Amino acid sequence: MSPRSSVEPVPLAEIGAFDHECDVLVAGFGCAGAAAAYEAARAGADVLVLERASGPGGSSAQSGGELYLGGGTEVQKACGFDDDPDNMYAYLVKALGPNADVEKVRLYCDGSVEHFEWFRACGVPFNHSFYDQPTWMPMSEDGLMWLGENSWPYNTVARPVPRGHRPPASGFGGAVLMEKLSAAATGAGAVTHVDTVASNLVLDGDGRVAGVVARKYGERVTYRARRGVVLTTGGFVDNEEMLADHAPVLLGHGKVSDGLDDGSGIRMAAAIGAATRRMGVVEIALTALPAMVCRGMLVDGLGRRFLNEDVYPGHWSVHAVRNQPGPYWTIIDEEGYESVPEADRWGVLPKYAAETLAELEESLGMPAGSLEATVETYNRHAERGEDPYFHKDPKWLRPLKPPFAAIDPGAGFFGGTGGPASGASGFTLGGLHTTVDGEVLNNSGEPMPGLYAAGRAASGMHGEGYVSGTSLGDGTFFGRRAGRAAAASVKENA
């Protein structure tokens, strides 16, 4: 390994004069970094933010922009929904599980209304309107959407209330969100150094993190952080070696990132003894359209249904890739397809169409009679408004009749391509083991002085499940706490 790619720590004694000094240094200017920088600066700290790209945003800016918020926000109330922190907690523990981090989930739910108001104070707007259809993200400027709260089994453990909050953007809203958050951070006094990538942590003689070594256009730049370093460098989906070691299920699939989620922050911290947690946990998205899946069915390569299609689409995506043989197909009839509003079709067209299921099976390479058996069973129960196998909501149940169509997730959305033939893309959720205040823990479970982390560089609220909005929500909520904790650190590296 070349010295440039090494993540081994640099002793403070080896650095003469630092090129730059600050109280709190934040590495990474996505949503978690913006939140940390804002809170640290508001607490009176001198804050520097390093961003390896040429401007803030990161993967957050390329996201759908959903924020998972609830407990009784102004938007929820305006749209006629009654929510409370306990109800939100019951849903999130189930949806983010098994093995969700209940301490972090509890804090997040109890602080969710305040966190919503924090976004508004940062200038993020929300329309008081509700999008009442299953989707990855609405092609509208509605401020509230469902994220699986109204589907089985989640509607059996918590009162169904929508909590997907969105800034006004038709489609991807992450850029709107990051424009406001980055402006808030710099407005609070945080200074940004772009085109600068953190490469190594600096340790003083007591083992405290005292700063970072970075590279800007290939040149070494040193930064001293008197109070703390906050790592918000993202996950590791863009690092094939780390995927092979920790999350090989994502190998060969597409990547949901800005292309720079290479795990560098995780590796730097691990090099000084930081513990990692749940590194195999991932989120996966099939480019199958929920509006069509709900009106028909999602089947595996053997023509079998495997989950109720009206759940949060990430659930059936992960279940498919982890447990079912591919390829995966949306099966729908003409009536179902035509009932999807044009704007909500996202340019998705069937790959195959046939008058009989036998013909469709042959086109799809399925065993003879497999899809016929699935549809026959589905139709027989749908006639009675039932789905005893998977409990899809009765409002979506209707016997399918010819002509039938098969839609390939690999074809992608908006008339584009779906990337890898699997039609699946994903990102990582595991990362550094942190306290609720973002302190990075070592392998003995002790906080590592001067080191904090948040966002996808850290292991957040998630167990083995995921819901849209919990990356941006978790990253900003615990990024805020990390920024405040770093600013309040009393020992300076004098």
Walkthrough of the structure:
With 494 residues, this protein is of the alpha/beta class. The protein folds into 3 domains: 3-62 and 175-283 and 426-488, FAD/NAD(P)-binding domain; 67-171, no CATH class; 288-417, Flavocytochrome C3, Chain A, domain 1. Helix content is 29%, strand content 20%. It is built from 15 helices and 22 strands. Strands 1, 2, 3, 8, 9, 10, 11, 21 and 22 form a 9-stranded mixed sheet that branches. Strands 4-7-6-5 form a 4-stranded mixed sheet. A hairpin with a 2-residue loop joins strand 10 (209-216) and strand 11. Helix 1 (31-42) packs parallel to helix 7 (174-187), helix 1 (31-42) runs parallel beside helix 15 (470-488) and helix 4 (85-95) runs antiparallel to helix 5 (102-110). The longest helix has 19 residues, at 470-488.
Short synopsis of the structure:
With 494 residues, this protein is α/β, with parallel strands linked by helices. It has helices at 31-42, 58-61, 74-78, 85-95, 102-110, 112-121, 174-187, 240-246, 264-270, 290-295, 313-323, 334-338, 357-364, 370-382, 470-488, and strands at 10-11, 20-27, 47-51, 67-68, 130-131, 144-145, 164-165, 191-194, 196-203, 209-216, 219-231, 254-255, 276-277, 282-286, 297-299, 329-333, 352-354, 404-407, 424-428, 431-432, 439-441, 447-453. The chain has 3 domains: 3-62 and 175-283 and 426-488, FAD/NAD(P)-binding domain; 67-171, no CATH class; 288-417, Succinate dehydrogenase/fumarate reductase flavoprotein, catalytic domain (Flavocytochrome C3, Chain A, domain 1, Alpha-Beta Complex).
